[in-house]
Every structure is written in C-alpha cells, then in structure tokens.
C-alpha cells in the first residue's frame, strides 16, 4: 500500500467497498465515528481530534456573552468581519499556502511565528496539513478525507473522522508524515512519543501555544474595546471555525460537476472557483488545484486575493525571502492560448 493511502487513520466504515467505490456512511455512522474519535478515555491517542472539538466548545461561552450581554450591531459586525475575512484569509496564508504547500518561505523564524499566531488558534496544524496532502493526491476519490461526494456531514465531521494520522505507522512512515510539518516550527514528537501519543505534534507544545495565543489575543482585544469586543472577536472565530468545515463540500460542487466554462480550467476534479471564499480569503479553489504550490491563486481579472497581498507585502518588507507565483504560466496556458484558438478562422 502506498504511503499516501495509509498515512491517515481509516474510519471504521472504511474509505471504499470491494468494488473501489466510495462508502457513504449514514449520519448516525458519522456521529458514532466522531464521538469514538474524540474519546480520550478510550485512548489518549485521540487527543488531537478531541482538542479540535474542545476548541470549538471553549469558544461557546464567549459567543453567549457576546449575544446576551454585550450585543450591539457594531460589535456584531466587527466580529462577523473578523471571522469571515481575517480568520478566513489567515487560514489560506498559514495553513494552506505555507504549512501545506510551502508556496513561500520566511526570511526569519520570527516572521513565521507572527504569521502563525496572527489570529486566534482554532485547530492544530497536524489536523489540516497531513490530510490536505492526501486530499490533493486523491481529490474526490475514495480516501479523500473531505470528499464532497460523501455529503455535507461527511465534510463537516472530517476533522475528527478522517483527518487524524494513522496510529500504526512504522518509523520510516512516521518520518515522512513528520516531514510534512517540520518547516512549520511546531514541536514534533520522536517515534517513541508518537507510539505513545499517536500524533506528530507534541501535545504539551500544542496545548501550551493554544493557551498563550488565546490569552494574548483576549488581552489585546480587551485593551482596545473591553470585554464586549473581545467576546465578539472570539465569537467571529467560532463561526468561522464551524462554517469552514463545509467549504470543501461547496468548493467541490457539492459532489457534482459544476465547472463553469472560462472560469474553472482544472477538470481533473470537482473543484470550482467561488466568489465568496475567493473574495474573502483568496481561495479560488479550482485555480489552486491547478497550481497548488502557488502563493497566488487569484489569476483572472476581479479574482481578488488578500492572502497573496499579505504574502507579497511581507516579501517587499523582507519578511518573506521567496515565493512561487504561477499567474503568468496560467495566463499562457489557459487564457492566452484560448484567446488564440478562438481567434483562428
């Protein structure tokens, strides 16, 4: 079995049947799997999955305070924009383009640390990065951890059901899995600790950074606008954290072919370019599947890419030392060539 086929922990219902077709579990099976995966009393190796949901639960009290004690239209708007624009764009910058695809490099680790903690932390890098490599390798096929063909809840619960690394990797396989994350600067377990904790990331480092990050940002928001602003911003982060789980479902046409001529050029998978995630986070998803290691994904006119603006600004400031930009190649292959063909008699 190829490494990419076994690096993730297979769900109890499996990826595919004997005919190689995707297994689509029932909603009941999905929730049963989810609660099994977050049960740290069953196995402490479930800590990464449990932490992902614990973060969401810990955001809930801030939301209750924001709505029932500090609510104003102004604070609601600020929190909403923080979630839908700032949190969303940061995910593209940090988790997507840097942590997974190494689309750019930092000139010094301090800039990496600042970018990593530019917003509230909501899930460990390990949950996103390893599984996203599998997603690109097996897009819309059995084994894709957030396969849109599996339905909305298949994607919504994928962070706990499908995105954890396997617990039975040998030492060579664990080294490969760790290699996906070494450049991010997180504290990585050795193989002996992996056998104990079932994760690439060190749990003490991961939890410690989470606590420090939230403490810092609550203090900053409080100093700027008091408890009301702090609770509103944490609420915005919670809404983003929940709603982002549906992105791959909608970003891959809800499991159906919905490519638009002249907009979606990669037909190898179901990914599509959508205006909302494009404008708010630079996630022009079909473009990204064409050029996954590009630091820019907004290639066509009006495809605004705030994530790229941040990366390029850091480059001009010297904080980013290098980046890959595939816009010119995209225009040459998919736009200019198309214009030339259409102009032929």
Description:
This protein has one domain (3-14, 25-343). It has 16 helices and two strands. The chain has helices at residues 3-6, 27-37, 47-68, 73-100, 109-116, 125-137, 152-156, 158-161, 171-179, 191-197, 203-243, 247-251, 275-281, 285-290, 306-317, 327-343; strands at residues 104-106, 320-323. It has a two-stranded antiparallel ribbon with strand order 1-2. Helix 3 (47-68) crosses helix 11 (203-243) and helix 4 crosses helix 11. The termini are far apart.
The oligomerization state is single chain
Low-confidence runs = 340-345
Residue share in β-strands: under 5%
Shape: globular
Number of strands: 2
The domain tally reads 1
Mean pLDDT figure? 94
Structural class: mainly alpha
Distance between the termini: 51 Å
Secondary-structure element series: HHHHEHHHHHHHHHHHEH
Count, helices = 16
State the share of residues found in helices, binned by percent. 55-70%
Strand order of the largest sheet: 1-2
Protein name: Fatty acid desaturase
Subcellular location: Membrane
Domain Fatty acid desaturase: 77-293
Keywords: Fatty acid biosynthesis, Fatty acid metabolism, Iron, Lipid biosynthesis, Lipid metabolism, Membrane, Oxidoreductase, Transmembrane, Transmembrane helix
Structural topology:
Blueprint: H1 3-6, H2 27-37, H3 47-68, H4 73-100, E1 104-106, H5 109-116, H6 125-137, H7 152-156, H8 158-161, H9 171-179, H10 191-197, H11 203-243, H12 247-251, H13 275-281, H14 285-290, H15 306-317, E2 320-323, H16 327-343
Antiparallel strand pairs: 1-2
Helix pairs in contact: 3-11, 4-6, 4-11, 4-15
């Amino acid at each position: 079995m190829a490494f990419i086929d076994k690096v993730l922990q297979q769900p109890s219902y499996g990826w595919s049947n004997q005919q190689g077709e995707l297994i689509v579990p029932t909603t009941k099976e999905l929730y049963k799997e989810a609660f099994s995966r977050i049960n740290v009393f069953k196995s402490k190796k479930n800590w990464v999955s449990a932490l992902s949901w614990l973060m969401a639960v810990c955001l809930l009290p801030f939301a209750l305070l924001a709505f029932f004690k500090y609510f104003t239209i102004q604070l609601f708007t600020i929190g909403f924009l923080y979630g839908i624009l700032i949190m969303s764009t940061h995910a593209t910058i940090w988790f997507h383009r840097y942590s997974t695809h190494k689309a750019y490099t930092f000139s010094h680790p301090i800039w990496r640390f600042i970018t990593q903690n530019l917003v509230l932390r909501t899930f460990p890098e390990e949950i996103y990065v390893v599984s996203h490599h599998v997603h690109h390798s097996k897009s819309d096929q059995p084994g894709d951890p957030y396969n849109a063909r599996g339905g909305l809840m298949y994607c919504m619960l994928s962070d706990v059901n499908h995105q954890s690394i396997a617990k039975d990797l040998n030492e060579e396989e664990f080294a490969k899995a760790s290699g996906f994350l070494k450049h991010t600067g997180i504290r990585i377990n050795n193989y002996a600790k992996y056998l104990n904790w079932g994760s690439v990331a060190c749990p003490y480092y991961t939890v410690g950074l989470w606590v420090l990050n939230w403490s810092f940002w609550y203090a900053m928001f409080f100093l700027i606008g008091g408890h009301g602003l702090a609770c509103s911003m944490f609420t915005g982060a919670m809404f983003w954290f929940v709603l982002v789980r549906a992105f791959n479902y909608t970003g891959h046409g809800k499991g159906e072919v919905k490519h638009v001529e002249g907009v979606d050029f990669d037909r190898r998978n179901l990914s599509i370019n959508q205006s909302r995630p494009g404008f708010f986070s630079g996630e022009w998803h079909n473009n990204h599947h064409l050029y996954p290691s590009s630091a820019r994904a907004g290639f066509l006119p009006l495809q605004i890419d705030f994530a790229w603006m941040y990366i390029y600004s850091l480059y001009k400031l010297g904080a980013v030392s290098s980046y890959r930009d595939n816009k010119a190649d995209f225009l040459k292959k998919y736009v200019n060539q198309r214009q030339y063909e259409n102009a032929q008699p």
